[in-house]
């Protein structure tokens, strides 16, 4: 379409011109635009949705696709209870609005966890009782409207009671593929059996269901279509296995077993999973290690296993003649174990243990080791045994100095009574939202340029932890040349100067390196010539 436009010349006169508008929306297919916009942040999508109606029609489904309401398990006190009350109220109003809107069909994913709060005393906060009805409203609205989300693919539920009406709702979610229960109390043991791609049941503490109910089979998911199964609720595992019986799992590829207590049952289950590629065993009963030498794994069982996560003591049981290219070694077995296997130490990983991985049918590409004190011998052995390694992750166990703490008597805390009485009106629920939730401000990030130092100076920290970064950067503990991801996970803070020096030296020594973690939950990732620090706008360019 031709658009008439007016251009202003330098002398102030205006000239009317006719210029063809670029048909940018039709240059690329809508699928390409959609793929690009899925990479946008929610703030960027919100800004795009204001540009024109066409952008709005495409952006809105992306904004509604994933819904999350999660009340964090935090104690309420005088300083935060009003804020949390308003947050609960906004969530309830949002649920009501979504129920009545035409956008409910755009929701593909729900993560819902209306966890209970630890409430302060009414003598301190007289009106804390406002929390309970607002919390109940939120729970009731979600449970009664869940069936409206007819395009729902993924559902994560936290600390809810799954009764018969709730289970009946599942029968109406015909497109549901992924279902996860986190510390949910499943009181209805029979009901609609779902055909799912992924099923997770997890609990961090014993659930409140009566013991006689837990002994009943839990019939909730059909085994035939399962691709991913996470069993992380020890109390519920026997009930699920009883319901499965001797069924086959022809499509099961990923299995996570939260607490291994019976090898016969476990090995019998594995025999029904011919396509299993990923196996994770997080905890086990101490008797498992004692009885393990009496068992062997049949060559026909899980023949295509490629990713293994087990404790050090079970490492040699699985690899033989299987294509295991990814291994995670856990170092926190339950205690006490009456008989310690040879080569096992709670702090260190003996390099000889890694020899078991050489019996696999393919080279090792990824190795993760959990909670150890690293040694120069171990790092050297890893590079020697696994020259094709691309991913190395080590969770460092912190060795602390002994300190003597003398606490004097503290004066009693002065208790003040919070007399506030918030008024909750649905029409005003979104009138006072924190500024950060609305702001579209995005500053242009600065880029730091760092030259490669000749060597990394020794750490000035007084920690008892070995200076593993200096070993690696200065060549005392060389890594495989093809290393792409290096993660050293520990609770130690580094100055920006030391961070930058480490990145510069490792970039120079290992040109394929693209991800680096030096502090817990802080990841540096390389794109092209720039390194970016996760969840920040810190950028770094290495200059030779």
TrEMBL record:
It comes from Mycena sanguinolenta. InterPro entries: F-box-like_dom_sf, LRR_dom_sf. It comes from the Eukaryota. Gene3D superfamilies: Ribonuclease Inhibitor (3.80.10.10). This is F-box domain-containing protein.
């Amino acid at each position: 379409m031709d658009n008439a436009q007016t251009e202003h010349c330098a002398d102030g006169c205006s000239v009317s011109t006719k210029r063809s508008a670029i048909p940018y929306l039709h240059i690329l297919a809508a699928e390409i635009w959609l793929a690009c916009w899925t990479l946008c942040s929610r703030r960027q999508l919100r800004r795009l949705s204001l540009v024109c109606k066409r952008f709005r029609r495409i952006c809105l489904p992306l904004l509604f696709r994933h819904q999350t309401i999660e009340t964090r398990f935090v104690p309420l006190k005088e300083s935060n209870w009003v804020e949390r009350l308003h947050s609960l109220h906004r969530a309830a109003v949002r649920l009501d609005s979504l129920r009545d809107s035409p956008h409910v069909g755009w929701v593909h994913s729900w993560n819902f966890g209306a966890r209970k709060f630890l409430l302060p005393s009414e003598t301190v906060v007289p009106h804390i009782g406002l929390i309970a009805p607002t919390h109940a409203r939120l729970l009731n609205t979600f449970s009664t409207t869940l069936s409206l989300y007819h395009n729902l693919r993924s559902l994560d539920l936290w600390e809810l009671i799954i009764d018969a009406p709730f289970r009946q709702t599942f029968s109406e979610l015909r497109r549901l593929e992924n279902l996860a229960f986190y510390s949910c109390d499943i009181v209805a043991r029979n009901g609609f059996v779902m055909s799912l791609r992924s099923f997770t049941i997890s609990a961090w503490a014993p659930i409140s269901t009566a013991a006689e109910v837990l002994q009943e089979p839990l019939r909730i998911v059909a085994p035939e279509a399962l691709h991913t199964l996470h069993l992380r609720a020890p109390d519920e595992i026997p009930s699920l296995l009883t319901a499965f019986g001797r069924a086959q799992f022809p499509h099961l590829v990923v299995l996570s077993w939260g607490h291994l207590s019976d090898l016969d049952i476990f090995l019998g289950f594995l025999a029904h999973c011919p396509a299993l590629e990923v196996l994770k065993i997080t905890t086990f009963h101490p008797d498992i290690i004692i009885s393990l030498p009496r068992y062997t794994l049949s060559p026909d069982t899980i023949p295509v296993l490629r990713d293994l996560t087990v404790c050090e003591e079970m490492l040699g049981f699985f690899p033989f003649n299987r294509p295991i290219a990814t291994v995670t070694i856990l170092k926190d077995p339950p205690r006490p174990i009456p008989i310690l296997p040879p080569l096992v130490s709670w702090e260190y990983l003996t390099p000889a243990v890694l020899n078991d991985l050489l019996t696999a049918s393919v080279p090792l590409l990824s190795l993760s080791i959990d909670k150890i004190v690293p040694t120069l011998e171990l790092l050297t052995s890893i590079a020697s045994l696994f020259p094709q390694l691309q991913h190395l992750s080590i969770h460092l166990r912190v060795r602390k100095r002994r300190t003597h703490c003398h606490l004097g008597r503290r004066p009693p805390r002065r208790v003040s009574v919070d007399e506030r009485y918030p008024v909750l009106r649905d029409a005003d629920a979104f009138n006072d939202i924190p500024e950060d939730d609305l702001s579209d401000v995005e500053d242009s990030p600065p880029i730091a340029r760092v030259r490669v130092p000749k060597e990394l100076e020794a750490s000035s920290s007084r920690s008892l932890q070995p200076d593993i970064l200096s070993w690696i950067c200065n060549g005392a503990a060389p890594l495989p040349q093809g290393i792409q991801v290096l993660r050293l996970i520990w609770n130690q803070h580094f100055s920006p100067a030391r961070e930058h020096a480490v990145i510069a030296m490792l970039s120079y020594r290992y040109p394929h390196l693209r991800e680096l973690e030096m502090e817990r939950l802080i990841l540096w990732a390389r794109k092209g010539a720039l390194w970016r620090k996760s969840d920040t706008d810190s950028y770094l360019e290495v200059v030779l």
